[in-house]
Amino acid sequence: MFDYLIVGAGFAGCVLAERLAAGAGKRVLLVDRRPHIGGNAYDHYDDAGVLVHKYGPHIFHTNSREVFDYLGRFTAWRPYEHRVLASVDGQLLPIPINLDTVNRLYGLSLTSLELEQFFAERAEHVEAVRTSEDVIVSRVGRDLYTKFFRNYTRKQWGLDPGELDASVTARVPIRLSRDDRYFGDTYQAMPRHGYTRMFERMLAHPGIKVLLNADYRDVAGEVAFREMIYTGPVDEFFDHRFGKLPYRSLRFHHETHDKPVFQPAPVVNYPNEQPYTRITEFKYLTGQDHAKTSVVYEYPCDDGDPYYPVPRPENAELYRRYKALADATPGVHFAGRLGTYRYYNMDQVVAQALTLYARLRE
Ligand code: FAD
Ligand code: UDP
């Protein structure tokens, strides 16, 4: 008899399994339909021996000391500050847009103060900032919006920025300084030996049994358990009763090159002509020393594994109906990016899981 059946061995499922077993002495069965643990943060050594992220670049950053310290119990950290260049008008320019981006793009030599003025002169007046278009045009104007955000967003989401919540493009700051770090968080680091190793250590507890290649629907009838924690897509749990919640997918194209360095930055974004959104070169992220190098291209698409909830009002409305159903389902707790339909980063998923754990303990 298990106390908990946990569906999904990603960040949400692994944190809850670890806490319930090690923190509360519960017996946990953790199932995933994929052949590996780690969910979308899974990493592995490819055929050339380069450590890669199977589902695209995962860079850890958080402002939460609690989350950072909690994960730090299962991994050493390698300090890493992420940097991204965007390919625009034949140049590779820093993104987030900063002082150097503007000076190099337009051949200017503005100071930070003058840049503020430059933005103010171009910013469009928006009565209430609601969409992903509003956020950018109201801050820097239409030209920078068009060059860096409009087409990237159309590609990534299959929607115009005007159809997406402000929160989507607001993830990327606009800076007056020369700071070219992608994230501003207090803690920025990568698990020194990779995410999968960290998850293995979290799950190495006698109270946790892991079952891979297994859909919970095939398992739930065969084993006895008291309660379930579900971290898969919430609409799928209810057989899409109210219709499908939109999730955006990606096709990943992995490549290995017979040279030590492929591109001048960890990630290069392609906001315009290319069918892919970005190329990531993993050795920058992992610090691995290797004669070859591996990269991944991301091609956004509708069909495929659900990776991104799509933040816009009608989807929030549909999710609210599923949420009400979830709240009224006794013995099942919903968590994670897919289970609660939130565009969450890894640290937010960990924080959410720790909060759920605290509630379950009461
Ligand atoms: P998941 O990792 O999706 O795990 C859910 C698991 O449930 C899956 O393994 C799935 O197989 C399993 N499952 C679903 N249904 C069933 C079923 N019926 N039976 C059995 N198993 C089931 N976050 C960051 O902080 N930094 C980044 O740089 C970053 N980059 C990202 C890049 C990409 C391309 C993507 C897609 C996401 C990125 N994220 C990043 C977000 C990060 O991946 C998520 O926040 C985190 O992995 C979510 O964890 P989770 O446990 O909620 O979900
Ligand atoms: N974005 C953009 N141009 C860029 C980078 C980001 O238009 O060069 C927009 C795009 O809509 C993207 C969102 O900002 O989906 C959030 O970017 P982030 O890098 O956080 O996306 P993620 O890593 O979650 O895919």
What's the short story on this structure?
By secondary structure, the protein is α/β, with parallel strands linked by helices. The protein is 35% helix and 22% strand.
Description:
The protein has 14 helices and 17 strands. Among the domains are: 2-37 and 203-246 and 310-361, Rossmann fold (3-Layer(aba) Sandwich), CATH 3.40.50; 84-170, no CATH class. It has a 7-stranded mixed beta sheet with strand order 8-7-13-14-15-12-16. By secondary structure, the chain is of the alpha/beta class. Helix 1 runs parallel beside helix 14 (346-361) and helix 4 packs across helix 5 (132-140). The model has no long low-confidence stretch (mean pLDDT 98). The structure holds flavin-adenine dinucleotide and uridine-5'-diphosphate. Flavin-adenine dinucleotide (FAD) binds next to helix 1, helix 13 and helix 14.
